[in-house]
């Protein structure tokens, strides 16, 4: 089989319906052999019924269930179940353009690439507030800063799960997603995509950004609040601290001593920023403080190990 599209879902039945409509509207070339796999990660809404509705008239769609909570567990399940040579990933709140799959497959072939990511445009449920400038789009899995094709050479350029693809051999060579990272239920952790691309780049494999491989990502109103951003930054940094080795031998409560003065400087910069800086810069400094708080809690929690 040429390609497998993998969608992991958790309690987003109606949003998943929109994603499946967009995938069903894909326009594959003649004789393309492909499939769509939806991995249900313990949903307790009507997700299974939505999938069953589509399956009645769409034989390409497969249902898989992953009982271990966590997006990385679900993605790895999808990889294991997939039959395609190319593994394409998108999310249950994303609408791929009708040529998304073909543009992605063509780009991998054109550049002899092993992995790729693409353009992710926002669908704002409500207009974003003034402080939410493009510097924060990454927290919302939005990527619109460039629309050309270019080599991915740094983990900071790693694609987001809403729009990424790999040759199957990549996963066989570097392994799947780190199950100690990534979102689990309602916990807003992340970093599993970047960590995988770190391994891909370290293995000397070729990764590309494809500007014409395009999807649209729904951004709900509740995600456009400072409270959501603080929670996302705190929980993600906590998850990173619990899953990644942090350097430093001299510690207090398992927190390297050098972290404490860094944290205090971040607090001072935040307070000064709220008095002197534009709204986006002031909030960015607040996010740095949330990062340190999450990092320290994660290190403290993992002190016994």
UniProtKB/TrEMBL annotation:
Keywords: Transferase. The keyword Transport does not apply. One of its GO terms (molecular function) is transferase activity. InterPro entries: Glyco_trans_2-like, Glycosyltransf_2, Nucleotide-diphossugar_trans. Residues 4-174 form the Glycosyltransferase 2-like domain. This is Glycosyl transferase family 2. It comes from Candidatus Nitrotoga arctica.
């Amino acid at each position: 089989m040429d390609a497998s599209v993998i969608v992991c879902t958790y309690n987003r039945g109606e949003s998943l319906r929109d994603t499946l409509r967009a995938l069903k509207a894909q326009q594959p070339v003649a004789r393309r052999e492909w499939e769509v796999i939806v991995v249900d990660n313990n949903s307790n809404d009507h997700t299974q019924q939505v999938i069953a509705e589509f399956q009645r008239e769409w034989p390409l769609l497969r249902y898989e269930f992953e009982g271990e909570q966590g997006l990385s567990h679900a993605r790895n399940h999808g990889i294991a179940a997939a039959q395609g040579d190319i593994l394409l990933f998108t999310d249950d709140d994303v609408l791929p353009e009708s040529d998304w799959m073909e543009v992605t497959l063509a780009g991998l072939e054109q550049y002899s690439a092993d992995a790729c990511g693409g353009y992710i445009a926002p669908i704002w449920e409500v207009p974003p507030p003034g402080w939410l400038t493009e510097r924060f789009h990454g927290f919302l899995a939005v990527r619109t800063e460039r629309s050309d094709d270019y080599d991915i050479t740094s983990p900071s350029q790693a694609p987001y799960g809403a729009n990424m693809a790999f040759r199957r051999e990549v996963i066989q060579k570097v392994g799947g997603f780190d199950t100690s990272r990534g979102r689990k239920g309602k916990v807003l952790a992340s970093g599993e995509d970047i960590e995988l691309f770190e391994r891909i780049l370290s293995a000397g494999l070729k990764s590309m950004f494809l500007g014409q491989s395009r999807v649209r990502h729904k951004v709900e109103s509740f995600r456009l609040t400072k409270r959501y951003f603080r929670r996302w930054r705190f929980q993600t940094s906590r998850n990173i601290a619990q899953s990644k080795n942090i350097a430093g031998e001299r510690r207090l409560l398992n927190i390297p001593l050098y972290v404490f003065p860094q944290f205090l400087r971040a607090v001072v910069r935040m307070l000064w920023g709220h008095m002197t800086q534009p709204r986006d810069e002031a909030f960015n400094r607040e996010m740095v403080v949330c990062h340190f708080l999450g990092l320290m809690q994660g290190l403290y929690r993992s002190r016994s190990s």
